[in-house]
Amino acid sequence: MKPAQQKTMTRKSKFWLGLLLIVLGCAFFGGIGVLGFHECFPGNSRLMLKEIEIRCPTQCYWNPKSQLEKEDRVRKLRGLLGLDGDDIHLYDPEKIDPAAMKEKIKRHIPEIERVSVYRVMPDKLVFDIRERIPIAALEHEMYLDRQGNVLNREPYEDLRGILPHFVVFQPGVKRPAPGERLSEMANIQAGIDMIELIQKRSDFSDISVRRIIFFKDFFLCDLKYRDDPVAFSVSIPVDVDKETMERDVFGRLIPQLRDAYRKSGNHIINLTFEGQAVSRN
User: Fold this and answer.
1) How many CA atoms lie within 13 A of 200 on its CB side?
2) What is the CA radius of gyration of the chain?
3) What pLDDT shows up at residue 47?
4) pLDDT digits (tens, 9 = 90+) for 116-126
5) Which residues, including other chains, have CB under 8 Å from residue 128's CB and lie 6 or more apart?
6) In this predicted structure, what is the pLDDT of residue 130?
7) Which 3 state secondary structure label does DSSP give 90?
8) What's the mean per-residue pLDDT of the chain?
9) Which of 34, 52, 105, 235 is the most exposed place for a label (fewest CB within 10 A)?
């Protein structure tokens, strides 16, 4: 064999030998990686679920003060998500699927606006919760938030009698169920806007709403002004947007309230038409 041919064969042998070593190395380290992952995660008996923690940025139903109440909330989540028992592995894909858990919580607990689910090594599952804030009470012991979502009564029982009461008398509106959006079923957005404006505007702080009754074309609002012992009854169109509510409706309502407060009269105010407010005793 000529020297040039020997040199070519040597180069080919080195190439195939190097390629073989690379393949064997990848197989070896891949196997080590698979075994290591199995040992660290699904196959590690030390990674069993032992603790569930609920986190919430504010004091609320899902973040109560007492330890007994905290334990009760954890039991509710365990029961809903099928996490009862001591044999659940933290990385069991059938038992612990964060995405599926979030969907189930969203379907069954409408009072939770947003939730994140994540694992904390070695044995903890964390639920980071943001709870909806009710702005009004409804009939049948339900509540309503700013987006018009209907909420269960249990988390907010201590607010009944404090929040304004919404009553709907509009054609075709059925009794809503928790999780439904009443603002899509009935024309109530103007009432929600009114509550929000009163809560946010410091110059509206003398006004508090007791009850709003929604009819087809207008809503009737029972409200208190300052320390007046008699409630005002105010009629407002249901089809006004938030800007109109702030600029025009309150622009006419506030002077009328002040005048009636000074004169101790005129507790029925009609704002359902353009122009000056009409009031009578």
Assistant:
1) 10
2) 32
3) 83
4) 999 998 899 99
5) 55, 56, 115, 116, 117, 118
6) 94
7) coil
8) 84
9) 34
- Tens-place pLDDT, residues 152-177: 988 888 887 899 999 999 998 988 99
Which tokens sit at 248? 């025009």
- How far apart CA 92 and CA 238 sit, in angstroms, is 52
C-alpha to C-alpha distance for 256 and 278, rounded to whole angstroms? 9
Task: Give the three-class secondary structure for 24.
Answer: helix
Query: Mapping DSSP to helix (H, G, I), strand (E, B) and coil, where does residue 194 land?
Result: helix
Rounded Cα–Cα distance for residues 18 and 44 (Å) = 36
- How many whole angstroms separate alpha carbon 166 and alpha carbon 8? 91
Q: Report CA 105 to chain centroid distance, whole Å.
A: 11
Q: Report if pTM > 0.85.
A: no
Tell me how far apart the terminal alpha carbons of the chain are, to the nearest angstrom: 122
As a whole number of angstroms, the distance between CA 262 and CA 74 comes to: 54
Q: What is the mean pLDDT of residues 52-81?
A: 92
The helix/strand/coil state of 3 is: helix
The pLDDT value recorded for residue 37 is 46
| pLDDT above 90 for 208 | yes
For 96: left if phi > 0, alpha if psi spans -120 to 50, otherwise beta; the answer is beta
pLDDT of residue 281: 45
User: 94 CB contacts (<8 Å, ≥6 apart)?
Assistant: none
CA distance 50 to 55: 17
Contacts of 16 (CB under 8 A, 6+ apart): none
CB 130 within 8 A of CB 113: yes
